[in-house]
Design brief:
The protein is α/β, with parallel strands linked by helices. Helix content is 37%, strand content 24%. Helix 2 links the parallel strand 6 and strand 7.
């Protein structure tokens, strides 16, 4: 639920605009969010400080007043870069989920503050839209596969090495295995080393997702809806319409969850 203040000029409900930031290990994702509408998604590498300030300025100027800058972060150094760029480019502090804002959903965890805020934001965004038990898998630098109950409680999940991390590890810790470029496997049997590595990584991740969803379903006593996101999600599920496991691929799920964390505070 969003606290909607009436616009004094036209009497229409006013939904606050959010500049949402998902601060990851490989990149900072930015977007404008107004209610359920996400637009102008931009991806900035942390080393490009000038580009970060420029992106913040452009997005901030496009939002209806008074906007807020809200972030979820799994990388302290990159969050510091965002905070510095925000002060310089738009003169704003960053509201950080879990630090300045409450968690976006209830959890069944002994220490909820120790969980990655990106995981909670993705889970909150998925449950807000679905309203039923779901599995949310993020295929990024790391792979996270998490479960939310029918009551909207984050139950926990699993963390695996990301596809790129796995490819790099095989190359760096062996004498002869090459560093491969990831792609969707169109084969069953890898006929050379490259195919064997790509198939092992991508199909192995698909298998891990299926196995964990089945385990979660046994706990829930029914099959949950499966939503995936992240930079490698298209390799795991190229087309949800032809997939018997994944119902949707939502690239901006974390950004939706970041905004949802802010909107949740307004509803209280």
């Amino acid at each position: 639920m969003i606290d909607k203040n009436e616009d004094p000029e036209d009497g229409e409900p006013h939904i606050p605009g959010v500049l949402a930031a998902d601060v990851g290990n490989s990149a900072i994702h930015l977007a404008t969010v107004v209610g359920d509408q996400v637009s102008a998604v931009q991806v900035v590498r942390p080393g490009d400080g000038g580009r970060l300030g420029e992106a913040l300025g452009q997005l901030w100027a496009s939002l209806p007043a008074p906007p807020r800058l809200v972030a979820a972060s799994v990388n302290a150094a990159h969050l510091t870069l965002l905070e510095q760029a925000a002060r310089q480019a738009i003169g704003q502090d960053v509201l950080v989920v879990g630090r300045d804002l409450p968690l976006p959903m209830d959890t069944d965890l002994p220490d909820p503050s120790a969980i990655g805020m990106d995981r909670l934001c993705c889970a909150a965004a998925a449950f807000d839209r679905l309203g039923v038990a779901c599995v949310v898998a993020d295929f990024g630098t790391a792979i996270t596969i998490d479960c939310v109950s029918d009551e909207g409680v984050f139950l926990g999940g699993a963390i695996l090495p990301g596809l790129g991390m796995g490819a790099a590890a095989l190359h760096e810790h062996t004498d002869q295995l090459p560093l491969v470029e990831l792609e969707e496997p169109t084969w069953v049997f890898g006929k050379d080393t490259r195919q064997a590595i790509v198939g092992g990584l991508v199909l192995g991740a698909r298998g891990a997702l299926r196995d964990l969803v089945e385990r979660y379903a046994n706990h829930l006593n029914h099959w949950p809806t499966v939503i995936i996101t992240g930079g490698d999600a298209h390799l795991i599920c190229p087309d949800p319409r032809q997939d018997d496991l994944v119902q949707a691929v939502v690239p901006d799920l974390a950004l939706r969850g970041v905004a949802a964390a802010y909107y949740r505070t307004l509803a209280k």
